User: What shape does this take?
Amino acid sequence: MILPDTWWGWLLDYVIVFASGGLLCALAQILIIRTRLTPARILVLFLIAGIIMQTLGIYEPLSAVLRSGIAVPITGFGASLAKGAIETALSDGPLGAFAGGLIQTAYGVGIAVAASYVVSVVFKPKSK
Assistant: This one.
């Protein structure tokens, strides 16, 4: 947090996170409206942007300022994949790059799968 000891410091952190996440969403919406890109292709574009930012060393400084505004969207997942692949490749060799991304993101993916299952059990899906 920028100024963690004051209430307005916390408020400023929330504003920064909300604004940065909102800008990413606005960028995606502009791409949907102005281009012929499908939402799936935009998702992949943001994932690759996260991978590129992590690889170039841009993601960590941005993450320090924008916090979860950049970490929660798919760009954060792409950065985690790249970070895991790079770290494991450095420690285990080139073949470690294949497992590193999976190791780094396994917890989040596992939680998403478990939460999806619980929601599908609790709520009755209806097809249209």
Summary: The chain has one domain: 7-122.
